[in-house]
Amino acid sequence: MKREIPTKLRKEVYNISTAWLEGLLQASDNAPPMKPMHSVITNRAGKKHTVLIRPIEEKEIDPVLEFLKLTLDAEYDYYDIVGARVFGELLAIKRKRMKDEYFFLGLHNGKLVGIANGRLMDDEVNISLHTITFERQINAGGVLFYSKCWYCFEVCQQEEFWATFESYNGWMLAGLRMALPSYPWPDMQHELGGAKIFYLTRELWESSIKEEYLQQVARTSFKPASKELIKKNEKLIIPKELEI
């Protein structure tokens, strides 16, 4: 807002490079890298799918943004709101406007089957943002959500993982099946719209979730990916249609 200047000035107009402004506005990017991981997932029909989970590459941001536009008109199981928010969160990486964000792709033979993302609030707390899948019958959602927990406790060495859920499917898959407790609400609120916080502690992760969740829900393991599997999924294949 303009105000009356309370003194005489030798110079009344200052020109400033936008590069100086960017130094004030740009978010930090100190999230530790995660090596590609994989899971062999068995679906309800007994068919096995090897899903690679790895960080998105800069060259893949624009194609994934274009694909996410398809979710905006999907009035089905909250795909529209989740898709819109994931679109904004990915765009925030491109525009450098979200602190310490991580963004994982789930790939099956190179094809994009899901996304999982979040950010580091501080050294202690990892914020889960969203998990979204794009192909039926692979059951990749549980492993994608799990990958964020793994990243929190095994890579970042943080103490708590905070999630919230827009959809019933998400809550059933992770909140209920991980038996996540919640903090008192509205005293404590998740940064995603002030919703309820469902949290996972390091103690609970080590005592049960780390091993039992994969076996009981996903019926799989979570291991570092081989060079061959990484190469097989090197080229990102974007679906032509939204399969939900």
Show the helix and strand layout.
Blueprint: H1 18-25, E1 37-42, E2 48-55, H2 61-68, H3 79-95, E3 101-108, E4 111-120, E5 125-133, H4 141-155, E6 160-163, H5 168-176, E7 198-201, H6 202-218, E8 223-224, H7 227-232
Parallel strand pairs: 5-6
Antiparallel strand pairs: 1-2, 1-8, 2-3, 3-4, 4-5, 6-7
Helix pairs in contact: 4-6
Number of helices: 7
Instruction: Please estimate the helix content.
Output: 25-40%
State the order of secondary-structure elements, H for helix, E for strand: HEEHHEEEHEHEHEH
- Reading off the top of the CATH hierarchy, the class is best stated as Alpha Beta
Tally the structural domains.
Answer: 1
Mean pLDDT over the full residue set: 94
- At CATH's second level, what is the architecture? 3-Layer(aba) Sandwich
- Please describe the biggest sheet, giving its number of strands, its sense, and whether it closes into a barrel: 8 strands, mixed
Measured distance between first and last alpha carbons: 48 Å
- Tell me the strand order in the biggest sheet: 7-6-5-4-3-2-1-8
Number of strands: 8
Low-confidence stretches: none
Structural class: alpha+beta
Beta-strand residue fraction: 15-25%
Could you tell me the CATH topology label: Aminopeptidase
CATH superfamily annotation: Gcn5-related N-acetyltransferase (GNAT)
